[in-house]
């Protein structure tokens, strides 16, 4: 029988796991609050990066945990191999049209999908570095942190920062609201739990928990804004960047009434329409996750242009009140904020309103179809402007007062559908972008919190990769 291991070898073994930064001497094993994780070395060009992929931060939200707040994952004692992404959350797969492949998850779809990822630059800095936390987009019903375009290694290597990302529940599984059995906002609670884990463990990876920044685009940007408004999230990050998405956008949240109506409608579609709200939830908990994916989008089909099926809603807990009222009352924590829009992004949504458009084919449309899309996207646009766009003419009454698409500016988007477009001349698109870029504290148009010339604040705005010309050059 072997006797006790000598003290020195045991000590050396311990030090190999708990070296500087709570990592092994080659940086691939890090001791976290959940247990040790082993990453893998990658190259970003010629720069080395260590990736830690597929770290579970919550128990699988299945069975009695479906629709509930996430529960932290149980700690583990073995070294967790974090060399590949975890599962993606259940979602509809939109394929068959050009460019679709880049948005499709390449990992298995499963309710056991609450994983996070980190990319750490090498060599590791002796000082703690900032942590940038990416929240993916997808209308709160599709998307995953494991897409190739979300690979954080290049940002980590070029900027010497740690980049992190997480999956969160989507669609009805993430945002169905029938309280108290299904309190709603489960996907946002997932995000918060991931943020809590990252803040607690940032230093172990060489990151500064006091310099965590959230950033996201579209519904990812709206998610960042919800965390800015939520009292329980504000202490988990120091800065925020929102691209093309805010919490007070008309597509970003639902009223409690609409959220309940959609939940009950889904229940009826899935054979769970009878009884109390709690009975509906109990019935839905017994359904296969694939059934939710099949029926999610049936709830809102053909209602309006940007109408995602299940969304964040006021729950009195994560979101204490309507985002617009919270913003008007100034209930947003003071933090440095970077906000902006993507140039010509409205043209992407313009096509969805064109007659005959389908995601199942190339959907080649003429300028007459563009006119139909304009009428759907901007109901108040004068006919002359629609006709001018259809005729590829820059002479329409494009300076109509206040009639803009939901996402961005007017004429710039209308004339970026094909290579043979006519560019609209005039200052309106640039002025309108600057107007939105000057939005202070993410308020709404005509509100009280707009920037004034010479006013000093901590809002930075970008359009098309440039700072807004409306903002002063001095340090904000």
TrEMBL record:
GO terms for molecular function: acetylcholinesterase activity. Its EC number is 3.1.1.-. It is an enzyme of class 3 (hydrolase). One of its GO terms (biological process) is acetylcholine catabolic process. The keyword Signal applies. One of its GO terms (cellular component) is plasma membrane. PANTHER family: ACETYLCHOLINESTERASE (PTHR43918), CARBOXYLIC ESTER HYDROLASE (PTHR43918:SF4). Belongs to the type-B carboxylesterase/lipase family. This is Carboxylic ester hydrolase. The lineage of its organism: Eukaryota, Metazoa, Chordata, Craniata, Vertebrata.
């Amino acid at each position: 029988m072997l006797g006790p291991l000598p003290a020195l070898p045991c000590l050396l073994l311990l030090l190999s796991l708990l070296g500087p930064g709570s990592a092994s001497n080659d940086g691939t094993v890090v001791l976290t609050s959940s247990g040790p994780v082993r990453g893998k070395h990658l190259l970003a060009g010629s720069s080395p990066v260590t990736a830690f992929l597929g770290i579970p931060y919550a128990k699988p939200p299945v069975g009695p945990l479906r629709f509930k707040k996430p529960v932290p994952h149980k700690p583990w004692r073995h070294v967790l191999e974090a060399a590949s992404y975890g599962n993606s959350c259940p979602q509809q797969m939109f394929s068959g049209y050009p460019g679709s492949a880049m948005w499709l998850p390449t990992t298995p779809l499963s309710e056991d999908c609450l994983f996070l990822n980190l990319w750490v630059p090498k060599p590791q800095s002796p000082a703690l570095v900032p942590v940038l936390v990416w929240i993916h987009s997808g209308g709160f019903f599709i998307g995953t942190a494991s897409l190739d375009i979300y690979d954080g290694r290049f940002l980590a290597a070029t900027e010497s920062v740690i980049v992190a990302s997480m999956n969160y529940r989507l669609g009805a599984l993430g945002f169905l609201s029938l309280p108290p059995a299904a309190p709603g906002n489960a996907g946002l609670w997932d995000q918060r739990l991931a943020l809590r884990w990252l803040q607690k463990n940032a230093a172990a990876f060489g990151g500064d928990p006091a310099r965590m920044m959230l950033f996201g685009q579209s519904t990812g940007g709206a998610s960042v804004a919800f965390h800015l408004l939520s009292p329980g999230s504000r202490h988990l990050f120091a800065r925020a960047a929102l691209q093309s998405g805010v919490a007070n956008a008309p597509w970003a949240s639902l009223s409690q009434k609409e959220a309940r109506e959609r939940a009950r409608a889904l229940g009826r579609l899935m054979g769970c329409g009878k009884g109390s709200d709690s009975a509906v939830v109990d019935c839905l908990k017994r359904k296969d996750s694939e059934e939710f994916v099949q029926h999610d989008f049936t709830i809102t089909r053909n209602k309006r242009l940007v109408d995602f099926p299940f969304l964040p809603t006021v729950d009195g807990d994560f979101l204490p009140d309507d985002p617009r009222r919270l913003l008007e009352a100034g209930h947003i924590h003071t933090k440095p904020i970077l906000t902006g829009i993507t140039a010509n992004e409205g043209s992407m949504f313009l096509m969805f309103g064109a007659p005959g458009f389908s995601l199942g084919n190339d959907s080649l449309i003429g300028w007459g179809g563009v006119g139909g899309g304009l009428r759907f996207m901007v109901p108040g646009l004068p006919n002359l402007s629609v006709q001018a766009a259809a005729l590829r003419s820059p002479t329409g009454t494009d300076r109509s007062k206040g009639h803009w698409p939901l996402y961005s500016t007017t004429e710039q988007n209308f004339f970026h559908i094909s290579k043979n477009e006519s560019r609209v001349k005039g200052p309106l698109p640039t002025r309108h972008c600057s107007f939105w870029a000057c939005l202070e504290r993410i308020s709404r148009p005509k509100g009280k919190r707009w920037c004034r010339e010479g006013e000093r604040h901590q809002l930075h705005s970008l359009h098309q990769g440039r700072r807004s010309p409306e903002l002063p050059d001095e340090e904000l």
